[in-house]
Design brief:
Blueprint lengths: L1 H19 L1 H15 L9 E2 L4 E2 L11
Antiparallel strand pairs: 1-2
Length: about 60
C-alpha cells in the first residue's frame, strides 16, 4: 500500500510540473516537429503566362 502512495505522489509531482511548464513544453514540441520536416525539392519558379518553367518544360499532363 505504501508503494501505491509513492507512485501516486510521483505522478502528482510530474503532472504538476508539466502543468506549470505547459507553454514551454508545447513550444518545444512544435519546434521539434518543425525541425523534423524535410523538404521535398527545391522551389522552382513557373511563368504563369506560358505555363512553362525555366527549362521551357510544359506542366505535367493529367491522365485519368
Amino acid at each position: 500500500m505504501k508503494w501505491i502512495g509513492g507512485i501516486a505522489l510521483a505522478l502528482v509531482a510530474i503532472l504538476g510540473t508539466s502543468w506549470m511548464f505547459r507553454a514551454e513544453l508545447i513550444l518545444f514540441g512544435v519546434a521539434q516537429m518543425e525541425s523534423a520536416e524535410t523538404e521535398v525539392g527545391p522551389t522552382v519558379e513557373i511563368e504563369w503566362s506560358s505555363g512553362t518553367d525555366r527549362q521551357d518544360r510544359a506542366p505535367a499532363a493529367w491522365t485519368v
